[in-house]
Automatic annotation (TrEMBL):
Cross-referenced InterPro entries: HAD-like_sf, HAD_sf
Short name of one Pfam family: Hydrolase_3
PROSITE patterns in UniProt: COF_2
Domain of life, per lineage: Eukaryota
Name of the featured protein: Uncharacterized protein
A single cellular component GO annotation: cytosol
One annotated GO molecular function: magnesium ion binding
Amino acid sequence: LGPDADELYALANRELPTSEVHIIRGHPPFFVEFLAPGVCKGTGLVELCRHLDIDVAELVAFGDGDNDKEYLQFAGLGVAMHNARDVVKDVADYVTPYTNDDDGVVRELDRLRGESRLTPDAEWTRQTLVAVSTVSPASPLSST
């Protein structure tokens, strides 16, 4: 079948000029992403917020993979899932005790609402514009 994702990641980092390509080890660990320099979920989040006139500091972002690191750092609150890789947990503001398979995103949103860290229902959707990339196929959020 060829090299696994770790081998491909190492090979790409050795052979490709970093000035021309940004390489991210994927999660789950069976893929590698190749992006233009300066392009990542974080810059996408900033651009979306600019377009919607939302302060990125108001956002809650959830992630578990290497490709989530930047946008967890850009968001006002970056939450790493319990099953996240250590490099993701290291940059997150908070690590939830739940995995994405445990409905961790929903549980954390409920916890934040209970702590009054999110605004009332009328403004809740706009404020939290949740950047979710940890939704499992069985999750009720996966169709959103």
